[in-house]
């Protein structure tokens, strides 16, 4: 059985529709299934925000040590970072970027977008040749569409498949989007210092390596000498992650996995784990090529 067939089989067994692209950063060898299919990025798009932020800093348009005041009012919903804090906060742009990437803090992401704007994010992805990657909404606006589309039933309505079917946030034609291949191209550019200056590239790689979630891509590589750096993204029925797996022999592999579950359950361990399983199948195939 080919690696692509094994990947599709793993997605089926986990009860998800999956799209994957994996790229050997140094040789250019690749493997995928649905790699050019349009996908909803969700919080994976925070990687694009981060690259745009560093591009703005490199151009002298902002200082990453610039301080932000974060009052209690206007914070985005979320269980992590500033979004979950109870008191006013003061932090630098680069510390907000850390929270945005490490714990996917929506408030931190919104603060950074308030500073650089969506147009700058889209200009960065266009400059890098990511023709299928586009941000339609800020994260505040994205969450607002879910609340509006869910209707009076609120969060509980998101267990209803009929409600899920009408969410604009789950339609790549109407929300922040990309393709798995675009995302591996972006990761490759970051790791090859082609997305920005070497100093800024190192800073971006550091933050991706500080992500705290081990239950998706990292679960497929439970080895002390293999390093996984990535960014997750989640919305109702959607579980995504893009990242780079680095081996002690110098091998570097960019992998992007986007899934949508048939079940509306908020907790679905097989759907999380299959991201690591399929990433491992893809990387092992590339290493054996």
TrEMBL record:
GO molecular function: hydrolase activity
Source taxon at top rank: Bacteria
Keyword tags: Hydrolase
Protein name: Serine hydrolase
Domain Beta-lactamase class A catalytic, first and last residues per copy: 20-259
InterPro entries on file: Beta-lactam/transpept-like, Beta-lactam_cat, Beta-lactam_class-A
Pfam families per record: Beta-lactamase2
Phylogenetic classification of the source organism: Bacteria, Bacillati, Actinomycetota, Actinomycetes, Kitasatosporales
SUPFAM superfamilies according to UniProt: beta-lactamase/transpeptidase-like
Gene3D superfamilies (alphabetical): DD-peptidase/beta-lactamase superfamily
